[in-house]
Specification:
heterodimer; A: mainly alpha; 2 domains; two-stranded antiparallel ribbon; globular; B: alpha/beta; Rossmann fold; OB fold (Dihydrolipoamide Acetyltransferase, E2P); four-stranded antiparallel β-sheet; 14 helices; about 20% strand
């Protein structure tokens, strides 16, 4: 006599899984990884490897010896966190700092809240901001990008980022024209391809957008969220540029420099810490865009997207409660 | 053909696997014994009209529906009543059933058994409704709601459209598809009968675009039937859901907790339209239906015309026998069907298909934590938040679940189908609906 399984419907399952989603994000980050290796060479490989391995190691140690529960390091989420952390720091960071950053990312921001799916804040950003506050010098001296096969002049050239130059210039009372004439300032072509100073993964807008398109097609992210951030930054920065072009740079500069693309496409879209319906996602995106520009224009830091995303992460539960999907057949009174 | 329509929001597209779509409908030989469960319609089960030892003819009334929402049952073959006893049915419970030892197939004299198509509709509106009631017609799409109740429009309401459900959005199933191809003319006459009973002058047959031959065939035939049109629909599950079909075909939203008549629509399945034709034009009660028997391991996926009460094992044998590695038997389709424990369970009026699943597809995947990807929210055709409702239900916060519209859930399973973490979302939604339903009843 055959024994049959009895279970509730549905009896079929679409082939999506957490692991597949996580590795889709990893694949989407490959172009940006290649660009970082092209510009920073072995340093980029070193930072990526240390970051990913440290994240995996801490997740394994905590799950096995602290929680004494199932070990889920092969679900891909620690790999994603590791790559994102590496993407957010300069290529010449000392290894021990990076390892501490990974511990904060996995131990504090992820596992202490209950692991995958429970963290209110984006783990890699928590790790990054922790490092920025703890090691302000090392976290803000970026190596100058030099193509892999270009003649190596000296090894340890560091330079400010485009946003750093801007903040410094504005602070010194220079006009935008004067700031832009600085030879260290990358032109638009450099900004698009990533030929400028900056963190590992934020270099090339083109590579980041390419990965973003893949994730949209693969249905890992919605296009509306990154677009709402980018549009908000463009419009908000654009308004000030139109009012006073001598003191406010044109909005395209804001889009192509710093971590905006990286943040908008890969960090803000983190499923766990972003709102769960379309209206909520757009409000969240607009919030991130506004806070980013407020920090960039008037804050103490040249770059603000990390803080903007973390601040809006805190609003996610509230947004989820306030904005519900449109119910079928429910007529508003 | 007019352009493709579909419903919003939500929906998924599971693998179609319509293995038996080109297999014509064939009849099965009568079994030795029929087991006819009394509870095979939505509402109250009918009362038995026969007792042990009685001789019955094919089509003879054997159980009478006395409650308002109930349906008559007729003998599917002639023979002797062996007993009235409990029998396992697809609900998983043992419930009252009439056992008939089949002797022959001698029909009641007043049933027209000829294959001739009777086109002229002579019965009046009231006569149609009472004939549909006498013949025990229920909705054959799976809900088994007594059809005569649907034909009685409540006071103050008016039907504007009759929507005919030829969507068959469940993967694997092809019984409606074959019926539309082989009995198209009868279906259209059935639709005209329903239109007359409802006093509507517009009927729309909704068919998904994966059945182009059925769309073409019925479009061609409908030219001779004034007011009947065919609407091709984009392939998307659960388009066969009543509310989704109305949204897709006429872009109206049935208000939460209300019936389709609220927006001037009545929805019937193509199989029901065919049964109505047979009842009204041929005086034939609902004693047989088309059932798809299919599955990946099955050697001959088929569509059988089967008498109610036939054991499922007979169908499986006729389709090539139960494969060795069968892990699950499903009464219905893979999205909304019920898994059953034994092939001895009989076919009932609501059985649209029998699906055999191999062992490797029978077990659920191991659940992971929710990663808040919101895919369940995106695919929910009712605009609900399945992740949230299932959590509320798990935490027994039923009042909050009610406020978040849990009772609107149509149990289509799109959320659970989509969930990357393989969470049992619908299990908890069902539990929540049950408990919220109890809460609502105690309040009254």
């Amino acid at each position: 006599m055959n024994m049959f399984t009895i279970s509730g419907s549905p009896h079929v399952h679409g082939d999506e899984s957490v692991k597949k989603i996580m590795y889709a994000v990893v694949y989407a980050m490959v172009p940006a990884m290649l660009v970082s290796i092209y510009f920073f060479g072995l340093d980029a490989v070193r930072v990526l490897l240390i970051s990913v391995l440290a994240c995996l190691f801490f997740e394994w140690v905590i799950q096995k010896y602290l929680i004494k529960g199932p070990v889920t390091i092969n679900d891909g989420s620690a790999v994603v966190a590791g790559i994102l952390l590496a993407f957010n720091i300069p290529a010449n960071i000392p290894a021990w700092m990076l390892i501490i950053g990974a511990l904060v990312t996995i131990g504090v921001a992820k596992m202490s809240f209950g692991g995958l799916g429970k963290n209110p804040f984006n783990p890699a950003l928590v790790g990054r901001v922790f490092m920025l506050i703890s090691f302000p010098v090392q976290m803000t001296s970026w190596p100058v990008a030099k193509p892999l096969f270009a003649p190596q002049l000296t090894d340890a050239i560091t330079g400010p980022t485009a946003l750093g130059l801007l903040k410094e210039g504005v602070g010194a009372g220079k006009t935008i024209e004067q700031i832009m004439s600085d030879p260290q300032m990358p032109d638009y072509m450099d900004q698009l391809t990533g030929s400028m100073s900056g963190s590992l993964g934020e270099m090339s807008a083109i590579a980041l957008i390419l990965g973003g398109i893949y994730m949209v097609i693969r249905k890992v992210i919605n296009w509306q969220l990154p677009v709402s951030i980018i549009l908000t930054v463009f419009v908000f920065a654009g308004i000030f540029h139109l009012i006073d072009p001598q003191h406010y740079i044109n909005p395209t500069f804001h889009l192509l420099t710093g971590g905006l693309m990286l943040g908008a496409i890969y960090m803000a879209t983190d499923m766990v810490s972003s709102p769960m319906n379309m209206t909520g996602k757009i409000i969240y995106g607009v919030g991130i865009g506004l806070i980013t520009i407020i920090i960039r224009l008037w804050g103490a830091y040249p770059e603000g997207i990390s803080f903007a995303i973390l601040i809006m992460n805190a609003f996610t539960p509230l947004i989820n409660t306030a904005f519900k999907p449109k119910r079928f057949g429910l007529i508003k009174k | 053909m007019n352009s493709l329509k579909t419903f919003a929001p939500g929906g998924v597209h599971p693998e179609e696997n319509k293995f038996s779509e080109n297999t014509p409908i064939s009849s099965l030989p009568l079994p030795k014994q029929l087991v006819i469960p009394l509870g095979q319609n939505l509402g109250a089960p009918p009362k038995p009209m026969v007792k042990k030892g009685d001789e019955v003819k094919t089509g003879q009334l054997i159980a009478k529906g006395e409650a308002f929402i109930s349906a008559n049952i007729h003998a599917p073959a002639s023979g002797k009543v062996a007993k009235i006893d409990d029998a396992l049915d697809s609900s998983g419970y043992r419930r009252q059933a009439i056992f008939i030892d089949v002797i022959d197939d001698i029909w009641e004299e007043n049933i027209d058994q000829t294959p001739d198509i009777v086109r002229e509709i002579t019965l009046t509106k009231e006569e149609i409704v009472s004939r549909v009631k006498e013949c025990g017609i229920v909705g054959l799409g799976g809900a088994t709601f007594p059809s005569h109740v649907k034909l009685m429009i409540p006071d103050g309401k008016k039907a504007e459209y009759l929507l005919i459900n030829g969507v068959e959005c469940e993967p694997y199933l092809t019984s409606d598809h074959r019926l539309m191809l082989e009995r198209g003319e009868e279906i259209l006459i059935g639709i005209k009968i329903l239109m007359k009973a409802l006093s509507v002058d517009k009927a729309i047959i909704g068919i998904e675009n994966n059945k182009p031959n059925a769309i073409q065939h019925l479009t061609e035939l409908s030219k001779n039937y004034v007011g009947v049109t065919v609407q091709a629909l984009k392939v998307k599950y659960p388009q066969g859901g009543e509310k989704q079909l109305i949204k897709a075909a006429v872009n109206r939203e049935v208000p939460s907790g209300k019936l389709p008549i609220e927006v001037g629509c009545v929805v019937s399945n193509v199989g029901t339209a065919f049964a109505v034709y047979e009842a009204v034009q041929k005086n034939k009660p609902l004693i047989e239906r088309v059932v798809t028997v299919t599955g990946k391991g099955l050697s001959n996926p088929s569509n059988f015309l089967v008498r109610v009460g036939t054991p499922i094992s007979d169908l499986l044998n006729a389709a090539g026998g139960l494969p060795e590695n069968t892990g699950k038997l499903i009464n219905g389709g893979p999205m909304m069907g019920k898994s059953i424990s034994s092939p001895d369970i009989p076919i009932v009026k609501g059985s649209s298909g029998i699906l055999v699943m191999p062992v490797e597809e029978s077990r659920r995947k191991k659940p992971n934590p929710c990663i808040r990807c919101s895919k369940c929210t995106e695919v929910c055709p009712m605009g609900l938040e399945p992740y949230f409702l299932s959590k509320l239900s798990k935490l027994e916060l039923f009042e909050k679940a009610e406020k978040n519209n849990i009772m609107d859930c149509i149990e289509c399973g799109s959320c659970q189908f989509t969930c990357p973490s393989s969470l049992p979302l619908l299990d908890f939604l069902r539990l929540g609906k049950l408990r919220v339903g109890q809460l609502i009843r105690t309040r009254k």
